[in-house]
Amino acid sequence: MRDILDLERYPLDRPDSVGWSDLVNQCQADLAREGMFNLHGLMRADVAAQEVARLSSKFATESFRHEREHNIYFLDHIDGLPDDHPALRRTHTSNQTLCADQIGASALTRLYEWPEFTRFLAATMGRSALHTMSDPLARINVMSYHEGQTLNWHFDRSEFTTTLLLQAPEAGGAFEYRTDLRSEEDPNYDGVARLLRGEDPEARILTLSPGTLNVFKGKNTPHRVTKVQGKRDRVIAVFSYYDRPGVQFSEAERIGFYGRAS
Ligand SMILES: O=C(O)CCC(=O)C(=O)O
Ligand SMILES: [Fe+2]
């Protein structure tokens, strides 16, 4: 993995070393404080650039244009919530998505399936194990956003989301998030409505650099990607892991996110 990752800086391949334990402790502290951690420059910059070049023709010809109006839940209706509640305010999303079956054998697939990577991620989250998805489309996605495009406010399906930025835009395309806006016990619909009005003082903005791994607790932390500005696309890989093996999206979810079920 040394050909694609900076393992001098991040010793993911040496789980018995002090350096590995120190890194895990640091990530755990960041997760507890911020709901996320970042490994800047985990993927080598030239490898990230090669992936962008390799995928650019696929983006041009076979990507799914994910374009829709949606609410923060990506659901048509929430039981117990009137359909006109401001927490259900609709926003617009537009980007291009490539699914795992289109990405093929690549540095991204190698990283996603590398057992030491899963082991490291599980340790940062205080879990005994994490598992790759069996969903042939959802396990790895690469998304590109060109000028004016955005992924609007949403909560994720999985508790943790793991992304790796491959190419940064000239401007915009920042990751905006609001840590722990809701919990399993409290959906905090009024807090959601306030965030959607742009009035939540706890919302934070993160500007990622290419090669950076970002792990964040997206299930209760709403987040969005602000509009990309300039000619260079924002390109980012999204890896999905779950605490049990064999997880798949439903057919309806696949059609919503990818425009196809298989
Ligand atoms: O593009 C990003 O930085 C965020 C991606 C994301 O939130 C998601 O795929 O759920
Ligand atoms: Fe997300």
Automatic annotation (TrEMBL):
Signal peptide: none
Molecular function terms from GO: metal ion binding; oxidoreductase activity
Keywords in alphabetical order: Iron, Metal-binding, Oxidoreductase
Sequence ranges assigned to domain Fe2OG dioxygenase in this UniProt record: 132-243
Taxonomy, superkingdom: Bacteria
Cited Gene3D superfamilies: q2cbj1_9rhob like domain
Homology family: Belongs to the iron/ascorbate-dependent oxidoreductase family.
Protein name: 2OG-Fe(II) oxygenase
